[in-house]
Design goal:
Blueprint lengths: L5 E7 L6 H13 L5 E7 L6 H11 L3 E5 L6 H11 L4 E5 L8 H12 L5 E4 L7 E4 L3 H17 L11 E5 H8 L9 H11 L4 E4 L2 E3 L8 H30 L6
Parallel strand pairs: 1-2, 1-4, 2-3, 5-8, 6-9
Antiparallel strand pairs: 4-7, 5-7
Length: 255
Amino acid sequence: MTPDTVSIVIPAYNEARRLPPTLLALAQWRRGCSWPVEVVIVVEPGTDDTRQIAEAAAAQQPNVRVIANAEQRGKGFAVRTGMRAATGAFVFYMDADLSVPLREVGVFVDYFRAEPMADVLFGNRQHAQSKITRHQSWLRQQMGQTFNALLRRLAVAGVHDTQCGFKAFRRAAAMAIFAQQRLDGFAFDIEVLLLAQKLGLCVVDRPVEWHNSPESKVQLVRDSLRMMRDAARVRRLVGEAVLVATERAVPDGGA
């Protein structure tokens, strides 16, 4: 691992339509990068050819690696699998639709270099400097804002956009967080950010360019209710994880 290596983790479930242009964009973008990039595609079993498409790309591009999970457990599980397997000094996870363009990777890496105290960066679509080139529907926007407001009460204080699918970590921070992260569903982002805060890591929200995908996998009402349910569990889960990590860090006989 060299100081500037970047890992990009992409969870993929029934992404046969969106994955091919994403893989092409990644190959073109990587050729212009000044640092090595590995792409880790984590495929969960589905009903289309996502795995075959990913493996065909990996056979042609040595920087692309495919992890095929044995069962479909959810986005949180897929991301956790990829983050634990990533080898880069800076580790990103992002959605297969590239709603945040790849040029933002370089922007985030530059921020890490300029701000050595920053451990975790997460995209915030509500940031005053964010550029939304294609908006969600009015209903999705309103429900998203309401959802995040409720989350701030239930679990994550000071976070205005937990669900933006573009987050970056220094390697040590990623390893510490994802060694303890447990939620498998869409609410895993909440757990990730709360774990980072509980572990004393420096978390910074950053503006991003965002192009909303009309093929979002989130079912507005069903998944929002599930995320609210999981959010209510997050504080207990995170408290247990941090307690265990602290106990492991204390030698036998320690105070």
